[in-house]
Design goal:
The complex is a heterodimer of chains A (about 325) and B (about 325).
Chain A: E1 3-16, E2 19-32, E3 36-40, H1 47-54, E4 63-72, E5 75-76, H2 82-88, E6 93-96, H3 100-103, H4 110-122, H5 126-139, H6 145-148, H7 158-170, E7 176-180, H8 188-205, E8 208-212, H9 216-222, E9 225-230, E10 233-239, H10 240-245, H11 250-258, E11 308-310, E12 313-318
Parallel strand pairs in A: 3-8, 3-9, 6-7, 7-8
Antiparallel strand pairs in A: 1-2, 1-4, 4-5, 9-10, 10-12, 11-12
Helix pairs in contact in A: 4-5, 5-7, 7-8
Chain B: E1 8-23, E2 29-45, E3 49-53, H1 60-67, E4 75-80, E5 83-84, H2 90-97, E6 100-103, H3 117-127, H4 134-147, H5 164-176, E7 182-186, H6 194-211, E8 214-219, H7 222-228, E9 231-236, E10 239-245, H8 246-251, H9 256-264, H10 270-273, E11 316-317, E12 323-324
Parallel strand pairs in B: 3-8, 3-9, 6-7, 7-8
Antiparallel strand pairs in B: 1-2, 1-4, 4-5, 9-10, 10-12, 11-12
Helix pairs in contact in B: 3-4, 3-5, 5-6
The chains are: A alpha/beta (about 325), B alpha/beta (about 325).
The complex binds adenosine-5'-triphosphate (2 copies), iron/sulfur cluster and magnesium ion (2 copies).
The site of one adenosine-5'-triphosphate (ATP) has 15 residues of chain A, from strand 2 and helix 1.
């Protein structure tokens, strides 16, 4: 297994009338072939923008990727011309969004939307594409797949539309699928169906997966490695086990303590993170998390901590001046 | 029948709410019924939190609104301290209303954008004639802001100037203004980020203790419901299929739907997750316009037998106040 994607110092800013929103501000990570990476963090921390930047789907104005590299299969996506990029998107890498209704074309049949990409990217003829489309729908668990090719998106339930999106995403055997909150709009039991399906297909096809979500449980269940984001930066990165059982950033620790767990033995008080995330247009100096951090020392207000290996593992990284002193146990 | 059990605040008996589906513009002819709530029975004890969990459209909000008489029930009864709200005269009901409040999911949509935060919180004080002069009004609004953790100087701001979590605090303060004994919390934290969600959950718990409140806590997130509730009712397609103590429901779920729901909720613990069994339900939730016959869950149930589609299973007490509606347990 080799490295499929390597993102280096990626910065995407939105140039607004009242200032510059640093939505993604210098993130670096790698993704191995076939790996599942979880991307977590609260609303507005830059999860979607970081994914859209890699896919080159940031619209100018007001947004632009101002710096960085995204090396995919040895080539920098950010240096490609639009035609090359279009060939890669939906072919070697594809995306699944939260709201399938907005990404499906309401006036085209499900069958047509599937065959279109197959004909375009894989150069299939009409009948081969149609057969493959039916096969894909069957793979994602749509009953009587062949007869449903003539249906329109509105004739499908939310869960079924998301299955169609997954069918489209895998249709060209991509190396990478980026799923942005793929199940947030769906019910719990349907969420479970879709995530199991997606994980199963990726495993079967050897596809790497980036799952963006604010649900810490989903990441714990499905991800091999995890990037935790806060205010446009990755503040901690490690294997799922490292992140959940040995967190080395106060924000990660705070997140884990503030979510109720289904297996909580008795009623106990949650330990919320005080305050609210900072305004990305006016970030505080030093560490962005400092105003909400219980562990802050003087240095935190002046100098920005960088993502660095933590003592016991050089693959587990944290951007915090006191990372070495944190332990997952309650300390207050 | 008047309920007199001391510690029961709310007693719901065989409550149904059907929404008519009509056709035609002038003579609106009823063509069908949406069976949003189809015969639910449960009690809520004084000072407890009853959690109501279930998937979108299963009838949670409708249940809450029927209890508060914001919807007229189609059938059945709702007793509040032994008095039947469904048959109460409107003047009597009006004074009862003060004691029952609701907090909504969408903190933005539920606040009037053109009113200041102070007036949003204070309005019910005037409606229910709970203050006699301007000074008293100001004092109480200030106190309410303090109680929910907002700064009194924020009273003159408008909803759009607040964050999601702060707006939810305004909603809580407004509900508290009239000193209710019962609050329906309808997905009060579903729209919030985890760190803010925890702040609001803690606030609701503190207020419950401080003011001896009784909650019906509605949510689709079973982890949140289990955290805050003393007992939990699991709803599916208009029916309560299981009801038990929070610990009992987790350790000893009886209904196949509850089992699937529990297994579908991931726990933020990757080591534990590798050992948990998963029951993946097939298919979608049927429409409440054409609910399946018999047990409404039989179309997706992994252990259904022919008899399941014949009759609606009785909601029975299996001992220990653990109630379940399934013929196979
Ligand atoms: N088109 C845009 N124009 C201006 N600002 C934008 C745009 N898209 C995103 N932003 C800003 O960039 C920041 C990061 O947004 P992003 O959508 O990546 O957040 P997110 O982590 O995906 O949040 P969520 O969990 O709510 O989806 C936000 O502050 C947002 O306001
Ligand atoms: N005012 C109404 N008129 C007609 N149908 C309604 C009305 N309110 C609710 N319904 C229907 O009744 C059913 C139950 O709705 P309800 O809002 O109680 O569900 P819920 O469990 O609160 O769902 P959610 O989790 O999405 O909030 C749904 O099928 C809904 O479409
Ligand atoms: S760097 Fe300082 S402020 Fe930032 S998380 Fe670490 S201790 Fe807290
Ligand atoms: Mg997003
Ligand atoms: Mg509802």
């Amino acid at each position: 297994m080799g490295t499929l994607l390597e993102v280096n110092n990626l910065k995407t800013y939105f140039f607004m009338q009242d200032g510059v929103t640093k939505a993604v501000d210098g993130i670096s990570y790698d993704l191995q072939e076939g790996e599942t990476l979880g991307l977590v963090g609260e609303s507005g921390c830059g999860k979607s923008v970081s994914a859209l930047s890699v896919m080159r789907l940031i619209a100018w104005p007001p947004g632009r990727t101002v710096e960085g590299e995204a090396i995919f299969d040895g080539e920098d996506l950010l240096k490609m011309d639009n035609n090359e990029m279009r060939r890669i998107r939906g072919n070697r890498m594809s995306m699944v969004f939260q709201e399938p209704m907005t990404s499906l074309n309401p006036v085209l049949t499900i069958g047509r939307q599937l065959t279109e990409t197959l004909e375009l990217h894989l150069k299939m003829d009409k009948s081969a594409a149609r057969n493959r489309a039916a096969e894909l729908l069957q793979m994602v668990g749509i009953p009587e797949a062949a007869s449903r090719l003539n249906d329109y998106p509105h004739q499908f339930s939310g869960g079924m539309r998301q299955r169609v999106m997954i069918a489209m995403a895998i249709s060209c055997n991509p190396r990478l699928i980026i799923a942005d909150e793929p199940t947030t709009a769906l019910d719990v039991t349907i969420q479970a169906q879709i995530l199991e399906l997606m994980k199963g297909l990726c495993k079967q096809l050897g596809t790497a997966l980036i799952v963006i979500t604010h649900n810490l449980g989903v990441v714990a269940r499905y991800a091999d490695r995890v990037n935790v984001m806060y205010a446009g930066k990755i503040i901690e990165r490690g294997t799922a086990k490292e992140i959940y059982h040995n967190p080395k950033h106060p924000y990660t620790l705070g997140l884990l303590r503030s979510v109720p767990r289904l297996d909580e033995p008795k009623k106990q008080k949650l330990d919320p993170i005080e305050g609210i995330p900072p305004d990305l247009m006016n970030l505080p100096p030093g560490c962005s998390f400092r105003p909400r951090c219980h562990y802050a020392i003087d240095k935190c207000a002046v100098e920005e901590p960088l993502l660095e290996p933590v003592a016991d593992s050089n693959r587990h990284t944290s951007a915090c001046w006191v990372a070495g002193k944190l332990s997952a146990k309650k300390d207050t | 029948m008047v309920q007199t059990t001391d510690n029961v605040l709310i007693d719901v008996q065989n409550m149904k709410k059907y929404f008519p589906v009509t056709q035609g513009v002038v003579f609106q002819k009823k063509v069908a019924d949406i069976k949003a709530v189809d015969g639910v029975s449960f009690t809520i004890h004084k000072g407890e939190t009853l959690g109501l969990v279930g998937e979108s459209g299963c009838g949670k909000t409708t249940t809450g609104r029927c209890i508060l008489q914001l919807y007229k029930v189609t059938e059945g009864d709702v007793y509040f301290e032994g008095e039947n709200l469904c048959t109460m005269k409107s003047t009597a009901l009006r004074s009862m209303r003060r004691r029952m409040q609701i907090i909504f999911q969408d903190p933005y949509g539920s606040l009037n954008p053109r009113m200041t935060c102070g007036n949003i919180i204070g309005e019910p004080l005037i409606v229910h004639k709970m203050v006699s002069n301007r000074n008293e009004y100001r004092e109480q609004v200030t106190e309410l802001l303090n109680i929910v953790g907002l700064n009194p100087y924020m009273a003159d701001r408008y909803p759009h100037e607040f964050s999601g979590g702060q707006r939810q605090r305004i909603g809580v303060a407004r509900a508290l203004a009239v000193k209710p004994s019962f609050i329906v919390c309808d997905e009060p934290v579903s729209a919030l980020d985890v760190s803010i969600q925890a702040q609001i959950i803690n606030l609701l718990e503190e207020l419950q203790e401080q003011f001896d409140l009784t909650y019906l806590f509605i949510a689709h997130d079973l982890s949140v419901v289990r955290h805050i509730s003393d007992r939990i009712a699991v709803m599916y397609l208009g029916h309560i299929v299981e009801l038990a103590d929070r610990q009992e429901l987790y350790e000893n779920p009886l209904h196949p739907y509850t089992k699937a729901l529990l297994s579908a909720v991931p726990i933020p613990d990757p080591i534990l997750e590798t050992t948990r069994s998963r029951i993946i339900l097939i298919g979608d939730v049927p429409s409440p316009l054409h609910p399946p016959s018999g047990c409404v869950f039989h179309t997706r149930c992994p252990i259904a037998i022919d008899e399941c589609s014949a009759a609606i299973p009785e909601f029975r007490n299996m001992g220990n106040d653990h109630w379940v509606a399934c013929i196979r347990v």
